[in-house]
Amino acid sequence: MFRLTLDGKPLVLAKRTSLLDALQTAGIDVPHLCHDARLKPFGACRLCIVEVDGEARPVAACATPVHDGMRVRTRTAELETLRRTNLQLIARHYPKEAVLAEPLHPFHRLLAEYGVEAGGDVHRDLFHDDSHPYIGTAMERCIQCYRCVRICEEVQGQFVWEAWGRGEGTRIAPGKGGTLLSGGCVGCGACVDTCPTGALFDKRVTAEPDNWTRTSCVYCGVGCQMEVGRSAGRVVAVRPANSPVNRGHLCVKGRYAFDFNHADDRITSPMIRRDGGWEPVCWDEALDFTARRLQEIVDRHGPDAVGVLGSARATNEENYLAQKFARVVIGTNNVDCCARVCHTPSAKALKTMLGTGAATNAFDDIEATNAFLLCGANPTENHPVVGARIKQRVLQGARLIVVDPRRTELAALADVHLAVRPGGNVPLFNAMAATLVEEGLVDRDFVAARVVGFADYVAFVADYTPEKMAAVCGVAAGDIRAAARLYAAGRPSMCFHGLGVTEHLQGTEGVMALINLALLTGNLGKPGAGINPLRGQNNVQGAAQMGCDPASLTGAQSFKDAGPRFEAVWGRKLPASHGLDLLQMMDAARDGELKAIWAFGYDIYQSLADAAETGTALSRLDLLIVQDLFLNRTATFGTVFFPAASVFEKDGTFMNSDRRVQRVRQVLPPPGDARPDWWIIQALAERLGKPDGFAFDGPEAVWNEVRALWPAGAGLSYPRLDNDSPNWPCPDERHPGTPVLHADHFADGKAAELARIPFVATPEQVDDTYPLLLTTGRTLNHFNAGTMSYRTPNATLAPSDTLDIAPVDAAAYGLKDGDIVRVRSRYGHACLPVHVTPAMRPGQLFTSFHRPDLFVNQLTSSVRDRLVHAPEYKVTAVRLEKPDG
Ligand SMILES: Nc1nc2c(c(=O)[nH]1)N[C@H]1C(S)=C(S)[C@@H](COP(=O)(O)OP(=O)(O)OC[C@H]3O[C@@H](n4cnc5c(=O)[nH]c(N)nc54)[C@H](O)[C@@H]3O)O[C@H]1N2
Ligand SMILES: Nc1nc2c(c(=O)[nH]1)N[C@H]1C(S)=C(S)[C@@H](COP(=O)(O)OP(=O)(O)OC[C@H]3O[C@@H](n4cnc5c(=O)[nH]c(N)nc54)[C@H](O)[C@@H]3O)O[C@H]1N2
Ligand code: SF4
Ligand code: SF4
Ligand SMILES: [Mo]
């Protein structure tokens, strides 16, 4: 207990905090300039000085911890004089014009409050950078609080800003380059956000927002919370909000890439394809037309001739309605979503081995772990806020093992980087397991208590020694052993994995091989440990969890266990036939068995592998309903187009990577005739004569039905989600949530069984005709199908996908940066600009797939995961040709 007296008022604190925090808790306002709750105390501006009994001189409240019995005064005449003097020193170098121009700026108000005039000796020999699309500089307003330097270091981990010179001559400027970008800036905006004066500012924010709405990021599965500023009917600014996930931080996409919402080519009217072209129609006509065509197909070919694809970009409520529509209105289990192509392998592996198909631990465990095992994931680009947290933890001393064919940013920082050959995960993970067994690094107590099949596994894995596997996976035996030792020594060690593990012939099995490592070392069921897929889009975890999966119902519940409850609530028998997954739908469409697809918020043509095959399948459909913000590539084959409201234009919830359900709140009305996906689904259900069960008056009512059917989510009511985001399972409203799964038993109550995973090589191998191995993935500034990020100034930050190639290969082919080269695979070809980089190993190539016109998926193969059919985006044999050859 800390009993304090602050300006005569008592305050009792249970935990030790800084004195500044205590004053804020007590509602006592003390001026400060260098303080930011996201940063370590700095104590430099000397404005938060206070008098403490027993201290000879005033102390900086931000840098002073409270102690029991502390008596503090904050506003004595002496303190105010000192503050004024300090402000005068600061203001001497501060431009008066700025104060006159923006009198309401908090710093300028502070000057006015103390009667301090700015100006006198304003420095002009300062850093200036006009080249960044989002961040502007006005360094004459720099008061040397070092907040930009500190936040770039302590939160983002980019170390862009440096203090040059000393004393009066100190200047803040990038340390490593002449501009922000050449100095390594990744555009997170944290320095702008913390800057107290406007020396750094958001260039594109010209109007002060008249309203701020808290909501969830529209891009990735980290699930950052943000406040969106609106002015004159447009989104004009975004600032980070505090949440357990992002702790007041964002990345360049969440913070800045919102202009897509108001793009000129946003589709705002329903359309029907007539005579080869798109004709705008009213909703009545679009819905009647679609309902009639769907009904004809069901009548003629049966309900299983229709498939529904939910959207990892839409809300839980919308995905719940989509799968309910498929099962109740159409009467088919042909329902899936794009979780199929990324982490369905993870969900399958985790569910099979541990009982719950989701990340075992929460992001908060990043700060609690001693070692990271990062496999086939590139979080500093793809989950940047989590990437930054991992990077900080590593800078503080946690060990880092990276398994990735490329030298990613985190690989460059790793204790051990295992540059596995694409497709070599299973032999590599098995070899790590063999090392654990052979070198006595197994957690015997954990295995005895919670694992079965150990003896069989030991016999199996003996064939996979690092020495035998080195040539198979392309990693030196010594490095494999070093990685296994580091992982075993961490305790807790935390594994994160990405698509470099899942998007393979053995994707699911690759994740199972990883789970073996966690079981052998006891890295499950405790904080700072676990097996954690870094989920993709804002709501990919939710889309599948809501039941957009042919084989399971809402909450990943089985037909066998939960079917009767669903039938009771839905008032209808569940369809009896096996549903088709997305890839099976493509095969069935190609073979003429599937006649209609409704794809919302999913650009299947651009994003599925082997685009030629996808095109053939889509062209054979009788009805393709596309529901999106834009005419995406899939719309090439579309019959009807439904214009959807964006995430900024509707209410609902998303489910992030660490099992939190978070609110999405409407910032603006949708433009024109665009409507939320939930509205469109309900409207079509009504046209098909099934209004019962599709007459919800809004997302909250839909969510309450989800909670009634999904016991592990029952405690997550909208009122609770207003100020809390517990990790599910959260079975009732008082339950605190479950950050760590499997704490004392696995979900199905049994011990977990080690999986014996033999290595099966992909048929996609290099040969004399296709001698290079292409792997595909993502880059920081763009997002998946590019529909959104390419409609923002991120397109100037990264104008194109590039073909990344190792210097020796570039030399051998006579290629240099910017040359256009034709890449040809056994499936198709695409032209890409070359980027020569030592991050690539000889013989291997990498590209992202974001730019629609470059259409990289013309190259990728038809190989799929053996168990759940995710495409093998990560391995394609190719050759390089002259673009006109
Ligand atoms: N900026 C940005 N962020 C995104 C997205 C985006 O498009 N842009 N998309 C979101 C989505 S949908 C998803 S699913 C996530 C995906 O996020 P990640 O899983 O990080 O995605 P990728 O970049 O596709 O692949 C990760 C890494 O796998 C490596 N890799 C390739 N082959 C192998 C292999 O055989 N073994 C191993 N161990 N590694 C291999 C690649 O070199 C790459 O660095 O990102 C989400 N976040
Ligand atoms: N070569 C290669 N290809 C890949 C991958 C790879 O690693 N390599 N990764 C794969 C992976 S993991 C994924 S997840 C897929 C992603 O592929 P997609 O899911 O197709 O891509 P996204 O860009 O996430 O978004 C899909 C669409 O949703 C729309 N949208 C956004 N918000 C809303 C909304 O609220 N409602 C509606 N109706 N529409 C909305 C967008 O405009 C966009 O057209 O790509 C896959 N393709
Ligand atoms: S925007 Fe982010 S990365 Fe760039 S300088 Fe500021 S804090 Fe550093
Ligand atoms: S890390 Fe992901 S959720 Fe967070 S701001 Fe960036 S894109 Fe949005
Ligand atoms: Mo994804």
TrEMBL record:
Keyword Lyase: no
Residue ranges of every copy of the 2Fe-2S ferredoxin-type domain listed in the record: 1-78
CDD domains: fer2, MopB_CT_Fdh-Nap-like, MopB_Formate-Dh-H
GO CC aspect terms: membrane; oxidoreductase complex
Pfam families according to UniProt: Fer2_4, Fer4_Nqo3, Molybdop_Fe4S4, Molybdopterin, Molydop_binding
GO MF annotation list: 4 iron, 4 sulfur cluster binding; formate dehydrogenase (NAD+) activity; metal ion binding; molybdopterin cofactor binding; NADH dehydrogenase activity
All residue ranges annotated as the 4Fe-4S ferredoxin-type domain in the record: 176-205
Taxonomy, superkingdom: Bacteria
One GO process term, biological-process aspect: respiratory electron transport chain
InterPro entries: 2Fe-2S_ferredoxin-like_sf, 2Fe-2S_ferredoxin-type, 4Fe4S_Fe-S-bd, 4Fe4S_Fe_S_CS, Asp_de-COase-like_dom_sf, Formate_Dh-H_N, Formate_DH_asu, MoPterin_dinucl-bd_dom
Domain 4Fe-4S Mo/W bis-MGD-type: 210-265
Iron-sulfur recorded as keyword: yes
Sorted UniProt keywords: 4Fe-4S, Iron, Iron-sulfur, Metal-binding, Repeat
NCBIfam families: Fdh-alpha (TIGR01591)
PANTHER family named in the record: NADH-QUINONE OXIDOREDUCTASE SUBUNIT G, RESPIRATORY NITRATE REDUCTASE
Assigned protein family: In the C-terminal section; belongs to the prokaryotic molybdopterin-containing oxidoreductase family.
Name by which UniProt lists this protein: Formate dehydrogenase
